[in-house]
Amino acid sequence: MKKETAKAKGLAWWQLSLLGIGCTIGTGYFLGSSIGIKLAGPSVLLAFLLAAVGTYIVFLALAQMTVNDPQEGSFSYYAEKAFGVKAGFASGWNYWMTNLFIIGSQLTALSLLSQFWFEDVPLWLFACVYSILAIFVVLMGTSGFDRVENVLSLIKVAAILMFIVLGLLAVFHLLEGAGQEPSLPQTGTAFFPNGLTGLWGSLIYAFYAFGGIEVIGLMAIQLKNKADAPKAGTIMLVGITILYMVSLGLAVSMTSYQSFNEQESPFVTALTSYSLAFFPHVFNGAIIVAGFSAMTASLFGVTTLLVSLAKNKHAPAFFQKRINYHQLPLASLTLAICGLIAVIVAALLLPDQLFEYITTAAGILILVNWIGMIISNEKLLKHSILRHVVNGFGIVLMLAAIAGIALEATGRPGLYLSGSFLICLILLTKLVKKTTYKRKEWNGYKK
């Protein structure tokens, strides 16, 4: 009877797929893609296609490990199983810091989007307001948060579909506008206005827009049928890729790539010259609502993740302790709030460059985590030569995206920021007590 009840409470594959969409489509795409367009021009479409391929390779690696051995710790557990406790420690803390950067990126994006209506209000003040609201939501507790996320996921998708419909109307001359004739570039120079270096530099922002695939691994343990994890992730990725490619293709066809900037959503920029007084306001509002939801979910995630790290002895034990009020892990939440305060201070000191810096840093840490997933998969499972080649190609793509940041002066501070954290993490990892796993049979694969 208990098993039946537990199964009834499990997620269906489509629910996990929808939850993955909610965690993936965020302000990194709605706003961060502007940076990619500014760097690469129309060739940003190729960057997003390459990022989709790389993300799918990571997903296959994670899904295969999840199906063979579903574990609550997901990729952190697999890293520890493959390479020992030091790898588990590094993987867990890297993911925690990645999420903290993602929160900072989302918080900054929400503040920038709010300046669409209130240009004279400083960025740091909006950051304060959204931080307080997010903390309030966490303190109140939200049972059924997954259901709310599913609804807000639909809002995000609806916003993109709204732009696609309006973009198609513009392409077929059913919308009046004073801008350029919607068209895709006809020459190589027009497609690669900044050459291959522009495409290379934009890769990190394309990958960042797909950040969130980890949720398939983390939430797969809640599936009614664990074997449905690959199907949930595949449908999620295919759907997101189609939405991204079509919407971005329309955006770059409707106005010059030089018009895009990180202060405004590319979809609002693309429709600026059309007589659609309602669109910028409705679209901006939808992004803010959805982005705030994602930021709050990330804050929940960071808080919960630190509790898990403490349970696995990868963090001080006091981070596990909860107070009676909604069973909140107070120490864990306090550390996350310190991260929010750091973002507010940064918004005060670097209001113009903050979004690009934090987004770049978050993107790099995501890719480091993904490379770790592929390497763990290689260590734990047996593969054909073709699969080894595919995994290697995925790693090369992600290393290329990280290296591409060094080509752009505006992205280098994010590279230095993430690099500094990784150096500190390596030094901390050396202090962790070394544990060697006994090599046991791992769901049919002997190591």
From TrEMBL:
Keywords: Amino-acid transport, Membrane, Transmembrane, Transmembrane helix, Transport
Localization annotation: Cell membrane
InterPro entries membership: AA-permease/SLC12A_dom
Pfam families in alphabetical order: AA_permease
Spans through the membrane: 12-32, 44-63, 96-117, 123-142, 154-175, 203-223, 235-257, 277-307, 328-351, 357-376, 388-407, 413-432
Main subcellular location: membrane
Domain called Amino acid permease/ SLC12A: residue spans: 17-377
Membrane topology (UniProt): Multi-pass membrane protein
PANTHER family given in the database record: GABA PERMEASE, GAMMA-AMINOBUTYRIC ACID PERMEASE
Annotated protein name in UniProt: L-asparagine transporter-like permease
